[in-house]
Q: What sequence folds into this?
């Protein structure tokens, strides 16, 4: 019987007739990953760059999410061959590589994710979840079909080079990070500053002009609506994070039931 594998983000985007909306799993918690996976969102991003996830916890998060019809992306900590190899061997079918500012760096990310002769990914599918311990027929020969590579543009240099980055063979999409972009532009914490929004729009145009999908971290639903990222051409968006949803939800409960003076005494929000 053929194994059921979760879709890559590339596959999901190819079959979509609308932008797809995702949730950011920052907590490293498999429970939160499963809650988010079953929410009805289109895709998830398990974050190793800014979250506490270990390799072991990433594998468990991938396993619990696999029970749901959702594309799961793992953001690796860096554009590093070892991190990419290990995350792919855990069974990630889409990786997101942060801080890609040139076509050469994008090409490097693709090589990390590809077996020879295209790249230099180590062969461990018989030992790891990626090939389901040799239960995925033809995994080695068809590995490119099982792996999707998304690169992040987060610097002014990346904005200027966005068309060339997107044109790299093997890059399946470009994801814009307004937070780091704003910091690199000297506008830290001002992700919605007009100059940052203009840079995001330029990146959208350059990537789409190269024929690749473009995405963006909208941070929360209000920002996704307010700045009309989907209407500007974003094909995939992050619209909320598990930790932020829990933080804001618990604060709302406290505000509803606990007197403000008592919360202030405790040093609570």
A:
């Amino acid at each position: 019987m053929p194994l059921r594998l979760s879709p890559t983000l590339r596959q999901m985007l190819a079959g979509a007739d609308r932008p797809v909306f995702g949730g950011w799993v920052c907590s490293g918690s498999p429970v939160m990953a499963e809650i988010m996976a079953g929410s009805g969102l289109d895709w998830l991003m398990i974050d190793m760059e800014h979250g506490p996830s270990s390799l072991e916890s990433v594998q468990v998060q991938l396993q619990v999410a696999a029970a749901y019809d959702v594309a799961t992306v793992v953001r690796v900590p860096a554009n590093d061959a070892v991190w990419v190899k290990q995350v792919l061997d855990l069974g990630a079918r889409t990786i997101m590589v942060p801080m890609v500012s040139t076509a050469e760096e994008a090409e490097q990310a693709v090589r990390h994710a590809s077996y020879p002769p295209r790249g230099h990914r180590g062969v461990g599918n018989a030992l790891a979840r990626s090939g389901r311990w040799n239960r995925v027929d033809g995994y080695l020969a068809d590995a490119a079909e099982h792996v999707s590579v998304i690169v992040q543009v987060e610097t002014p240099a990346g904005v200027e080079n966005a068309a060339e980055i997107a044109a790299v063979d093997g890059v399946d999409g470009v994801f814009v990070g307004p937070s780091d972009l704003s910091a690199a532009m000297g506008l830290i914490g001002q992700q919605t500053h007009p100059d940052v929004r203009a840079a995001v729009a330029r990146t959208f145009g350059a990537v789409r002009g190269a024929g690749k999908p473009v995405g963006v971290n909208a941070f929360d639903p209000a920002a996704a609506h307010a700045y009309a990222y989907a209407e500007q051409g974003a094909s995939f968006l992050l619209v909320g994070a598990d930790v932020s949803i829990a933080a804001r939800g618990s604060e709302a409960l406290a505000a509803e039931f606990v007197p403000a003076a008592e919360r202030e005494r405790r040093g609570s929000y």
Observations:
- The chain has one domain: 9-149+214-265.
- The chain is about 40% helix and 15% strand.
- Residues 9-149+214-265 form a domain with the TIM Barrel fold (CATH 3.20.20.60).
